[in-house]
């Protein structure tokens, strides 16, 4: 009943309602077209920036025709040419700022390495890169004669190579050294410093180069120096007084825990073995006595990530540590305050040679003297999941002893997905080679091609 009455009233007023509805629709449609015109006008006044294709980095022509190595297919920047640089030496006790420019990352993981003529160790070195996708080698930089590479580093972003070049025509291993840099596409070769130096380290943000004076005689003072690569400042960071207690070991730059924290440690074998922390936030010209003594533990080398310190440390002490003794080393993880040590990897049959940290993985290269084998192991940074990735027959102490290579080195990609190992026994049984692989690929290793009689040593990974 109520419904019927409502319909009747609706019928009596239908004409009025229809007129109102037409008017409302007209207003809405007019507003829509006005708004659309406004939006179109606004869009045209603020157009999207044009998309420019990212150019590929230009490689130096190859003589022969290990950034993240697994980058996103889309590069995040555009390669720019490096402005003019200088390779002449700056004035004594001064340095130059690093001249740099962006380099676009590409989809191809590439290994940066050094090639050395085994038949002529005094010959110049070549800085090379190997594309693991196209399987082509390219020359980055030919070190000019009479210089040879004494030590070398690849920046943490895979963009630049830092070289310590020794002049073979002048006496003294630590004298007449040049610190030279070059971008991994071959551009921007430049000399930042010339002088004497011994140990050399490079901060993870590329801002600071730390080094000490050549090893001094007992009772002679030493200095830890810094170069600010962004300003060219040459600074005295730590003043080390004369060491009068035999054997007179002097703390030297060891490794960086962060962009501002540098660890100094005595040479392996000193007693006691002290590690000090130099913090740039506390200024320069700090006295050794003012630095915190963070550890007295003996170790061969240290690495760091954002929250942990990793050490290749001795697992024996005193007379039980023989030079050729297996089972004397382990990988340890400590918090950044050097407390709560945890053994991550130790095998009684293995002598550990080197390790690398990438992502959540540790890659460890080791020698098994009893079996005359070289072995490569992967272990998680929490200590779990240790697996052997590869092994090869090889005399564990027969490797070349130049270029600080020891008995093999390993470099992991930033995300831990790939590795490259130097001094891996070659299938032909001749010159050791560089081999690389995926951390998920089991025992599959691929050798980087090498020229006859050439020794190759990997610095790490880039992507172009």
UniProtKB/TrEMBL annotation:
Compositionally biased region (Low complexity): 55-67
- Could you list this entry's UniProt keywords, alphabetically sorted: Membrane, Transmembrane, Transmembrane helix
Q: Where is the composition biased (Polar residues)?
A: 77-91
Q: Where is this region: Disordered?
A: 45-93
Q: Which SUPFAM superfamilies match?
A: DPP6 N-terminal domain-like (SSF82171)
Where are the membrane-spanning stretches? 12-35
Coiled-coil region list: none
**What name has this protein been given in UniProt?**
Lipoprotein LpqB beta-propeller domain-containing protein
Supply the source organism for this entry.
Dictyobacter aurantiacus
